[in-house]
Amino acid sequence: MTxxxxxxxxxxxxxxxxxPHTGWTRAHWAAVADHLLxxxxxxxxxxxxxxxxxxPTSSSGxxxxxxxxxxxxxxxxxxxxxxxRGTDPHGFLDWYRDGLVxxxxxxxxxxxxxxxxxxxxxxEAASIALGLQLTRPWLxxxxxxxxxxxIVDWLALSPVRGYPDNNWxxxxxxxxxxxxxxxxPHDPDRIAADLARxxxxxxxxxxxxxxxxxxxxxxxxxxxxxxxxxWAGSEGSAAFGSGALAPVFRSRLAxxxxxxxxxxxxxxxxxxxxxxxxxxxxxxxxxxMGALSGAARQSxxxxxxxASGELRAFVERGAIGERGLLTMGLFGEWPAMAQSxxxxxxxxxxxxxxxxxxxxxxxxxxxxxxxxxxxEQGDVRRVIRAAGWIVSGTVSDGIVRxxxxxxxxALEGDRTGDSALYGRLGYSSATLPPLTGATIDDxxxxxxxxxxxxxxxxxxxxxxxxxxxxxxxxxxxxxxADAHWVDSSVGGPAYDHGAGRAGLVTDGPLLAxxxxxxxxxxxxxxxxLARSGASAQPVALRLSGWPLAGATAPTAEIEAGAVAAxxxxxxxxxxxxxxxxxxxxxxxxxxxxxxxxxxxxxGEVVTVPRVDVAGVAEGDVVLAAVRLGRGEDPVPSAAIxxxxxxxxxxxxxxxxxxxxxxxLDG
Length: 666
Known about the structure:
Mean pLDDT: 95
Structural class: alpha+beta
Low-confidence stretches: none
Strand order of the largest sheet: 6-7-8-9-17-14-13-12
Radius of gyration: 25 Å
Shape: globular
Strand content: 15-25%
């Protein structure tokens, strides 16, 4: 330890024979895990029961944050230690055993906070129980009876409290099942009820929503597919039906992974969408679970390439700071990235990404030669029906895009402000919406909205989902937004970019939007629908494109009805399309670039192309082409064909002559 430098992780040489895409092997994963664990040692409290890290204190308080730092790093230790079958050259076992004993000692001033005092302890109790389960032969079984009883007593305080109606129910199941396995107090009926309730979250094709809302994000992978199969393989779970449930969980994970591997860019970055992105390479957890459980239809080499690509992408972009700690941010330090419940120890849920270390060095997932990601093999186009997503990846630039007509962290009919991480029409592996500032009340990117007198755009949260599919030429999706303005300064709670914000709501128009997607282009068609009892006066619509973020503003090209911005070769384009030669919409439009500073963890300056279209009456359709990519790509064209029942058909002609069509009802 005398020569340990937290600022400089010591990694083994790359192995481009075994890992031709990333160069990283199991030895790299082990080295990063050890570096993270060793870097935490200066922050353990004297009795080792808490890990108190420098940085912001969460809304749960310092004692809760100290428990969080211990529990989440304990999970990392458990994967590392159990995977080595008890080999422990750095002596991690002593630290965490001491902390477990001290943290549950009622006489210890540094005793862990109780769930009755802070619900966050319920989350951390699951990591404690899971870590004890995985390291049982070396840790739990070696404790004396008094220490075991104190741990049981502390864990038993969690299940009896209320739990949110979401992935937290898996925390309770995990704790209660461990307690059952050590003859501790547990409630079989409650476990059965939790399993039944979680089943209600399942949608289709391997996808879970996180609770009752339209929450489609990485919790599907690092929570809803991780805990079920770890639980099913745990001691004591058979009494609660794991034998029958395990094949179901494996089948669902297999379906999920078919979509999931398509959501990773060629540079290893996953599509940046949804809350808790500070957990970063926890996104690798379902990939490793596919190998661990035998569920994956992907080859071991592809699973490792995907997981190693994600870890390397984040590590090389500053996820580990100069003190060897995971920073509060996406890449480097950016505290505004956190949710209100996040403290300095929160990023260590990234530990879930190290699940693969449970597998020994001779497992095929570590010995197979890396194979390319879907995005490295060719263009990718997938429809994820559960989430209402179109996935479009292009091999030429390695970027994966999601066009979103299904996820908004809400229910149909809700009228809150949009969450930047859920409510946008577009997310990608190369961009991120601005997260702070005016965007709270005025959505800035990847949107279609009506403008009020102050020039603020409407929100779309609570939209109604429409058709989604693929016609063999392009993918399409439709949603209808009961557009509304939200003034969060009137009655709104503290803003959290992981969820929409409430406030004073003002009605806007009814807007039906269809996206037709092929390659790097989305043809976006928006029709203003008639709305009973609402004003039929013409409105102005704002269309916005993909956000670019960097140290400086990009170059911009602006012309009639069109705007493009380019930064470091990445190009964001937005242009109004005439319909069958009718360019009247272009004549009523004004193109511009919107610039913000300090609102993105990716770069200081955020630039968004946008076009405002005046005089949009009921029944009018505005056509636009929206693109994110590198280099040039010919622009598609489009036309509006009226139907006999007040609907219209939007016909898109692609540069190679192929045609796609989508219907917009009246």
